């Protein structure tokens, strides 16, 4: 069975959102399905843009950050996000359902180590809309963290250190040089860490170099693990008639699994599967599986990816939030015009004989406009110099910006017709 590392990484991300063996599947089906489907939509855009390049992606991370972003936006900007996500974070029951999903992921019944955290960092002196902070806490159960982004290096350290802590040191450089500047006003961040041991580890003695068939037709020698065991297994076909097989590789707690899928024929691109992927299809895979004796040969690999999320999110209809003149963040603050200046995700994963270690961090950075709207007096204009104690105005009118020199007792008046000022 051939497989591509790119899909194994996605499967891990899906398992964290849509663990069918967990209680959240029964109690929070809609929340799990909607967040999964949205994360997969973003993944499909990212995978399409990456072409044949291996990449790893966290659907859960991007769904978490965009859910928080919803609450800060208004008008058409919010409507575009809600349309893409297919839910409103402040509609009745949605936030509690997501919190319950979070509890299921973090519950002590998970023998595999999982941790996920959300954070919102806001410019300390930004005047927030009244009631925003308690409303945000009520929905997400996390407090607004106030930082001073004008202290660029310190602010970047604070955010990176938070991410490093919540990813067990795997991601310590989420924000590189230049990610924070004097115009930064808000950062929404999700961090996720997973350390799962296979229910049946691969014997190290079974790991050997084998040829891996790349999508461009070439081959490369990579270390591949192997084990013969009874696995949950099924076969499906795409709408185009391409058959593929799916195998479930459980972690030792049986709460989480990695679902591995690949087309039968090596010349069929992986996009034949990723283009049709959604939460319902994953559920269908699981529902049709039976125990089968199989020899599983799986690449041993580690991957690290950094993804710019702007184009994938724009392709899903979320365009206004990236436009300084159209973004609406009035639910956060009406003090100044804000827009999303960056949206990014970093993920690291290692799959070996004993299991999987993975971590991701997703961030959306909201900034003030890079420059105020220009008012250029490049045409005849009128001005009035007012004596404030008496309210008496002087006379004004000019075709150029140079005033005529006058005595201190006389209101300044214009009368210069040339762009350069004459000598007194």
Automatic annotation (TrEMBL):
Serpin domain: residues covered: 40-408
Annotated gene: SERPINE1
Organism listed in the record: Lynx canadensis (Canada lynx)
Protein's recorded name: Plasminogen activator inhibitor 1
Segments for region (Disordered): 388-424
GO biological process assignments: negative regulation of plasminogen activation; negative regulation of vascular wound healing
Keyword Calcium: no
Recorded GO MF terms: serine-type endopeptidase inhibitor activity
Function: Serine protease inhibitor. Inhibits TMPRSS7. Is a primary inhibitor of tissue-type plasminogen activator (PLAT) and urokinase-type plasminogen activator (PLAU). As PLAT inhibitor, it is required for fibrinolysis down-regulation and is responsible for the controlled degradation of blood clots. As PLAU inhibitor, it is involved in the regulation of cell adhesion and spreading. Acts as a regulator of cell migration, independently of its role as protease inhibitor. It is required for stimulation of keratinocyte migration during cutaneous injury repair.
Source species, domain of life: Eukaryota
């Amino acid at each position: 069975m051939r497989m591509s590392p790119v899909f194994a990484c996605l499967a891990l991300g899906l398992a964290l959102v849509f663990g069918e063996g967990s209680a959240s599947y029964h109690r929070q089906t809609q929340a799990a399905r909607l967040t999964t489907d949205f994360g997969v939509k973003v993944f499909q855009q990212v995978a399409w843009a990456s072409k044949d390049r291996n990449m790893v992606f966290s659907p859960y991370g991007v769904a978490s950050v965009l859910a928080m972003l919803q609450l800060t936006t208004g008008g058409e900007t919010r409507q575009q996000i809600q349309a893409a996500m297919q839910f409103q974070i402040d509609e009745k029951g949605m936030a509690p359902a997501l919190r319950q999903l979070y509890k299921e992921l973090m519950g002590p019944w998970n023998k595999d180590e999982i941790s996920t955290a959300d954070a919102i960092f806001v410019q300390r002196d930004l005047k927030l809309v009244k009631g925003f902070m308690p409303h945000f806490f009520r929905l997400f159960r996390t407090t607004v963290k106030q930082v001073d982004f004008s202290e660029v290096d310190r602010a970047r350290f604070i955010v990176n250190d938070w991410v490093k802590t919540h990813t067990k040191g795997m991601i310590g450089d989420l924000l590189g040089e230049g990610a924070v500047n004097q115009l930064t006003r808000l950062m929404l961040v999700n961090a996720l860490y997973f350390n799962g041991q296979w229910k049946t580890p691969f014997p190290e003695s079974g790991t050997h170099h084998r040829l891996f068939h790349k999508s461009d037709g070439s081959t490369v020698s990579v270390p591949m693990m192997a084990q013969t065991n009874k696995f949950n297994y099924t076969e499906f076909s795409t709408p185009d008639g391409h058959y593929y097989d799916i195998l479930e590789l459980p972690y030792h707690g049986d709460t989480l699994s990695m679902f591995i899928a690949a087309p039968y024929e090596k010349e069929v691109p992986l996009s034949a599967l990723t283009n049709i992927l959604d939460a319902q299809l994953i559920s269908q895979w699981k529902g049709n599986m039976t125990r089968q004796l199989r020899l599983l040969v799986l690449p041993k690999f580690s991957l690290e990816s950094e993804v710019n999320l702007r184009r994938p999110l724009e392709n899903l209809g979320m365009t206004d939030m990236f436009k300084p003149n159209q973004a609406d963040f009035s639910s956060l603050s009406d003090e100044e015009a804000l827009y999303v200046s960056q949206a990014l995700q970093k993920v690291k994963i290692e799959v070996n004989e004993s299991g999987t270690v993975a971590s991701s961090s997703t961030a959306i950075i909201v900034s003030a406009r890079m420059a105020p709207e220009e008012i250029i007096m490049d045409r005849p204009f009128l001005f009035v110099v007012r004596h404030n104690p008496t309210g008496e105005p002087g006379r004004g009118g000019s075709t150029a910006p140079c005033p005529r020199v006058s005595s201190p007792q006389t209101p300044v008046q214009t009368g210069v017709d040339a762009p350069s000022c004459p000598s007194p």
